[in-house]
Specification:
Helix content is 38%, strand content 19%. With 404 residues, the protein is of the alpha/beta class. It folds into 2 domains: 259 residues, Alpha-Beta Barrel (TIM Barrel); 72 residues, no CATH class. It has a 9-stranded mixed sheet with strand order 7-8-6-5-4-3-2-1-9, with helices on both faces. A 3-stranded antiparallel sheet has the order 10-11-12, with no helix packed on it.
Length: 404
């Protein structure tokens, strides 16, 4: 089952925000969670539901449920003086493209009507390759979508089988072709370090990725989450555990191959052709912007306040039908927690973290991090903490040293 929601304070029924919020970040992101999947992948602990798990919720009614939360959000943001045009919109899941293109267009239209969408906004829809058709991509482009993010994961059938992915490798280039024909930017997501995956397997996937010549690539190390089917298979000894050293080799190979193909890293797990093809939505997360997450289990952040919605689609729909916020809980991190989070997130991006933003104890660690080859010396002297390739592999250790 999906992971549990965090603990927190009770959220007000009207969704209202505290008074005296700090000045707004220039970016405002909108995330729309579409919690439906045909099957649950063995490694996934996201808040997703197959048809047999909906228990009273309806895919057909879902855009109407989201519309109610969008209307509530507009009221809350107005009252807080924070309503402004969205600079990015991201439909994630789950599998957003299980819904008809008209349903996705309706939800995007509701966001546009409530907040406005900036003229240069990035609007992304995630998709499984086997749900993408030329008719769908044309409809999305017509509605204002600018970018399709395709869940490729691997080009090797045996690896896809271990991950319980349902698509064939050939579906990926077809999806990319359909997206390009509609004028959309294209990103692909891949996962490395699957149990049983060899370095040769991963190189085969990288060959397929670079042959696609997409605008953007996200490559994530597989993390085996407790409670997933994959974790249970490993516990029973049916498949091997994930090898950290092999994952590190795969990451180094990824960076080298993508750099040779014309991509530059801009976040530990993300590469793009240029600055214009970076994920503006994800950068807003890493830089601490405001965003509102719509849908069951979605998380939001406005003015330093964080909250998260009830998980099940039926509970989400019921709360909204009664005129209440779907938020299950919220928190307002203190200054120390915000500083820690800023370090954890900004150190991961290629633009780096301002050395001056670190506490005194953290600044004393910088020289040692340079000596250990974990951060770039020239950038640090210029005032920005930028990870080296070795530092990206050991990013968590860098954060611990900076914040101890």
């Amino acid at each position: 089952m999906p992971s549990a929601l965090p603990l927190g304070d009770p959220a007000p029924a009207d969704g209202g925000l505290p008074d005296l919020l700090p000045p707004a970040h220039p970016d405002f992101g909108v995330y729309v969670h579409v919690p439906f999947c045909r099957v649950r992948c063995g490694y996934c602990d996201f808040n997703t539901y197959t048809a047999t798990e909906l228990r009273g919720a309806s895919q057909a009614d879902y855009p109407h449920d989201v519309a109610r939360e969008i209307a509530l959000a507009a009221q809350v943001m107005d009252a807080a003086g924070r309503r402004r045009a969205a600079t990015s919109v991201f439909f994630g899941g789950g599998t957003p493209t299980l819904l008809p293109g008209d349903a996705l267009a309706r939800m995007l239209g509701d966001v546009r009507d409530a907040f406005g969408i900036a003229a240069d906004a990035e609007v992304t829809v995630e998709a499984n390759p086997d749900t993408v058709t030329p008719a769908l991509t044309a409809r999305l482009a017509e509605a204002g979508v600018t970018r399709l993010s395709i869940g490729m994961q691997s080009a090797v059938p045996s690896v896809l089988a271990t991950l319980d992915r349902t698509h064939e490798p050939a579906a990926v280039p077809r999806a990319v072709t359909a997206a390009r024909a509609a004028g959309l930017q294209v990103s692909v997501d891949v996962i490395y370090g699957t149990p049983g995956e060899t370095l040769a397997d991963w190189e085969r996937t990288l060959d397929a990725v670079t042959a696609l010549e997409t605008d953007h690539v996200s490559a994530y190390a597989l993390i085996v989450e407790e409670g997933t089917a994959l974790a249970r298979r490993i516990a029973r000894g049916e498949i091997d555990t994930v090898d950290d050293d092999v994952q590190a080799d795969m990451y180094e190979l990824t960076d080298a191959r993508l750099a040779a193909a014309g991509y530059g890293w801009y976040e530990v797990s993300n590469w793009s052709r240029d600055e214009a093809t970076r994920s503006r939505h994800n950068l807003a997360y890493w830089r601490g912007a405001d965003w509102w997450g719509f849908g069951p289990g979605a998380h939001s952040h406005v003015g330093g306040v964080r909250w998260w919605n009830v998980k099940h689609p039926a509970a989400y729909a019921q709360r909204l039908s009664l005129g209440s916020s779907p938020a299950a809980g919220r928190e307002t991190p203190d200054a120390a927690s915000r500083a820690l989070e800023r370090t954890m997130l900004e150190v991961r991006i290629a633009d780096g973290l301002a050395v001056a933003s670190l506490p005194a104890a953290g600044r004393t660690e910088v020289a040692g991090l340079i000596a250990d080859g974990l951060v770039d010396g020239a950038s640090a002297i210029a005032g920005r903490l930028v990870l080296t390739l070795r530092g990206r592999l050991l990013a968590d250790a860098v954060v611990r040293r900076l914040t101890a």
